[in-house]
Amino acid sequence: MNWVITVPLWRQGKGVPVAERIEQLERFRALTGNTVQRFETEEEATSAAYLWSQLGFSVEAKFRPPLPTEDNQP
């Protein structure tokens, strides 16, 4: 589960005020129980981001590398 969607607080070139993004992030958290949703594939994350955008949320899909653990250390 290395793909996530979230409401970014800052996106270069986007004209949405930070206060509005914070409000969206709080609503997103209230609806999902978290500030991010995790997905296995880019396709799933992109599809979910599209659906959230249809509900008026400004979300983006991102790849998040796994956190290092003793099991996945080189």
Task: Describe it.
Helices cover 38% and strands 16% of the residues. It is an alpha+beta fold and 74 residues long. Strands 2-1-3 form a 3-stranded antiparallel beta sheet, covered by helices on one side. The longest helix has 15 residues. It is elongated and about 40 Å long. The mean pLDDT is 85.
Quick recap:
By secondary structure, the protein is of the alpha+beta class.
Distance between the termini: 20 Å
Mean pLDDT across residues: 85
Radius of gyration, in Å, reads: 14 Å
Number of alpha- plus pi-helical segments: 2
**N-to-C SSE string, H for helix and E for strand:** EHEHE
Strand order of the largest sheet: 2-1-3
Largest sheet: 3 strands, antiparallel
Bin the strand percentage.
Answer: 15-25%
Spans where pLDDT lies below 50 across 5 or more residues:
none
Percent range for helical residues? 25-40%
Question: What structural class should be given to the helix and strand makeup?
Answer: alpha+beta
